[in-house]
Amino acid sequence: MDMRICVINIYVSDLDFAIEWYREVLNLNVSDDHNNYPIAVDLETDNDLRLLLHKAEKDTQVDVWRESSTILTFEVPNIREKMKDLTEKGVKLMNEEPQWYPDGGERIAFKDPFGNVHELAELRSRAAPKDRM
């Protein structure tokens, strides 16, 4: 393969608030690498993929699943535990329950304060939910 994804930009209308929200709600810290504040900052990740908060003029108004968009998915070991954590921090989930996906896991979507849609995923590559067996 001659191409690989090296950075994902998350456009936000208020960079300072975004830094605080992504740190407090999603437990992501600002990285010392590629810190171009007040235009953009990298968030720390546990892989070599750059996750960049980038200043935009306005929030997005994407009607997810009806309009084209990109969704960033965060893998978690326990989706229901993370759902509870996020809702306690004021995050509105886009469904009441996670949805089962054929790739072997459950997912649930949520929006950041700027309208960007992200997902939580608990992957189970070999197991199916008990109610699907």
From TrEMBL:
Which GO biological process annotations does it have? L-methylmalonyl-CoA metabolic process
VOC domain: which residues?
4-123
Determine the domain of life of the protein's source: Bacteria
Q: Alphabetically list the UniProt keywords.
A: Metal-binding
**What GO molecular function terms would the record report?**
metal ion binding; methylmalonyl-CoA epimerase activity
Name recorded for this polypeptide:
VOC domain-containing protein
> What lineage is on file?
Bacteria, Bacillati, Bacillota, Bacilli, Bacillales
